[in-house]
Amino acid sequence: MSFTVIKHPLILDKLTRMRKKDSNSKVFKENLDEIAQLMAYEIFRDLELNEFEIETPVARTQGYKIARDIVLFPILRAGLGMVDGIIKLVPNAKIGHIGMYRDEKTMQPHEYFAKKPSSIENANVLILDPMLATGGSACLTIEKVKEWGAQGIKLVCLVAAPEGRDFVAKEHPDVAIYVAALDEKLNEKGYIVPGLGDAGDRIFGTK
Asked: Where does 5-phospho-alpha-D-ribose 1-diphosphate bind (predicted)?
């Protein structure tokens, strides 16, 4: 299992602002956007590069280009809040969408929408979801993108519960998981404790 908590003072500061119950949607979205960008900087450290020669105004020298496509799969709807921050770093990234909702009684995830870019077989694939709670939605999404041929998959979340981390690691040990914080547990309703509430509702101002 590859599980990484990305620790940085800026991330901790911004995550605290998101956790506070009196933070409005604007504050929540802005800090989510910025944390996603900070996390992406670390996650992309191992990107493969192609070398080629370029000419500067002074001389010829070696240049570099990211070797493989980057594809983002936000899990709808909360995952959309992480896209813009990452796109600022990799504006040529392609974006797919996976729609999931969780049955409030059974806490089981259900897929309602799936759309992918034309080719993802050789791409660097990032699945985005602010919350890794039970791990059910993440696992269904991973299964879907694997069916489409994806191989180099990374799951990127803000906050995770140990239960969700362990479930994803058990079902998909080949998928690297990156989070900004590992919280204490899930409560009886399947919410992360202390968590930050319902990320989708807080992003979009709904209840």
From this structure: 77, 102, 129-137, 198
User: Which sequence spans correspond to the domains of the chain?
Assistant: 2-48+66-204
102 is catalytic: yes
pLDDT at 189: 85
In residues, how long is the chain?
207
Query: Checking DSSP bridges between strand 97-102 and strand 109-115, what pairing results, if any?
Result: antiparallel
- Burial of 30 per CB tally in 10 Å (0-12, 13-18, 19+): middle
Q: Is 106 a catalytic residue?
A: yes
Q: Is 46 helix (H, G, I), strand (E, B) or coil?
A: helix
Residue 201 annotated as catalytic: yes
List, as residue ranges, the binding site: 77, 102, 129-137, 192, 197-199
pLDDT in the model for residue 200:
85
Average pLDDT, the chain: 93
Domain 2-48+66-204, architecture per CATH: 3-Layer(aba) Sandwich (3.40)
Cα 102 to the center of its chain, rounded Å: 18
Q: What is the tens place of the pLDDT at every residue in 63-82?
A: 999 999 999 999 988 999 99
Residue of 4, 16, 106, 206 with catalytic role: 106
Distance CA 189, CA 198 (A): 12
